Amino acid sequence: MPNVTYIEPNGNQVQIDVPAGWSIMQAAMSNGVEGIEAECGGSCACATCHCYVESHVDAIPAAAENELSMMENVVAERKPNSRLCCQIKMTPELEGLVIRFPEAQS
Amino acid sequence: MRLRKEPDLNPMIVIGAGQSGLQVAEALRSESWEGPIVMIGDEAHAPYHRPPLSKAYLLGEASEAQLTIRGPEALARKNIELMSGAHVAAIDRVAKTVTLGDGRSLAYTGLAIATGSRPRPLPVPGADLPGVFPLRTLDDCRAISIALESAHNVVVIGGGFIGLEFAAVARKKGKNVVVLEAADRLMARVVAPVISDFYRDLHTAHGASIVLGAKVTELHGENGKVALVHTASGVAFPADLVIAGIGILPNTELAAAAGLEVEGGIVVDACSRTADPAIVASGDCTAVRLADSGLRRLESVQNAIEQGKAAAAALMGKEKPFTAKPWFWSDQYDVKLQMVGLSAGHDQVVIRGSVAEGKFSAFYFKAGKLIGIDSANRPQDHMAGRKLLDKDVWPTPQQAADEHVNLADLLK
Fold first, then answer.
1. I want to staple B389 with a disulfide (CB 3.0 to 4.6 A). Which of B163, B184, B325, B354 is the partner?
2. Domain limits, chain B
3. What is the ipTM of this complex?
4. Which residues 255-314 in chain B show a CB within 8 A of chain A?
5. Which fold has domain A3-100?
6. 0.90 exceeded by the pTM?
7. In this structure, are residues A23 and A35 in contact, taking their beta carbons and an 8 Å threshold?
8. Contacts of A46 in chain B (CB under 8 A)
């Protein structure tokens, strides 16, 4: 299974086997990774699953218009590698993906 | 209150393992409660996201496992004991215990009631026929998912969020869909006519039949399952699958039996406190006493989460009132409806964007003050609106209608 490293706000690293087809948000939530709230459950309606993509940036499909609009209002600093991780689906190409969560989501 | 972990320390008990119950339990850990936490849920599952049930789950785009908010191992790491499939029969506020359905008694240090809500039952003959479903839980949706595969004629009773989201799913799956709404427009309890009309057109364009002013009088069965839905106007709609989405009822019975104040919900203050200093309540089951002494009951994820945070803080003796303006959303076809504030009582509506292009927001004003915004595929308006309303800053109606005015600039 593809492997994803999540970096929590305190720097702690959590490695999770994320099944293909799952969103990066879903695996983080069900495994209790710190630093993500994902209030809306993956509907791209809350902007509380903000993450920084630290690797594989070019292998991830670009953000859709809706996601870009929602990201205008993330609480933590928006950076060029900011994404809402409910919109990133795991694929074999993302093996070894590194995701960092910001200090705050809401 | 003792905070150190001691063997004889009674747990914080959370009744309910939904979005709000989980929030209380985890927020207790954030609030440095180091004693035991027991979360008691009547469903068989670990806490899961309910909103995707009527959308991604029934479309087959998300599995049950993908709906999980927090799995058993993640809960165990936080030392939160989940008792699933367990029923709480009674609360004894004097002894500070809860009694489970199996007769066991558990003592608590503090108690959070997050019992949620249940679908309002259809008050007509035939409502219990096979083929008629409520849509609230994962178990409901497991059954609906199976029935939907072989269904041809789907009748949705109730043109609110749940009914319309399901109607969109059923149309995407190629079913014949009729939506029967008793009021004269869709989602009438929440949105303004301009939004109702837009959604009627949206569903009609996707091939669903929307019938307004339709009062269902009886469900008729054939061969042991539902076959016809009769309305007061004498029309009978063929149906092999009926979804009843006519609202929810807060689960307040446990609180009422324990002598807590219940008025359309378990009455709490902005900090989720009941009159009993050891008991808080949060989520769908509550009604908040407002400053003007009125009561407000919200049914939303935001409310479940924010009241849950406030409830945990209150159990630890802190005041963290939930004061943000309410927000909601609904996904139907490819349109995301996002709502912030409460538009009831508005005297002016202005539109920003284009209704014809399906990207617009309705700004609701009351006596010149912005009180709510409904946005269809305009997330930027919604997110700016949340900040504006929370900071009590608002555009004039003219500014709201003018796309050249950047709403976020008003906050600077």
1. B325
2. 12-118+249-315, 132-246, 334-411
3. 0.95
4. 301-302, 305
5. Ubiquitin-like (UB roll) (3.10.20)
6. yes
7. no
8. 301
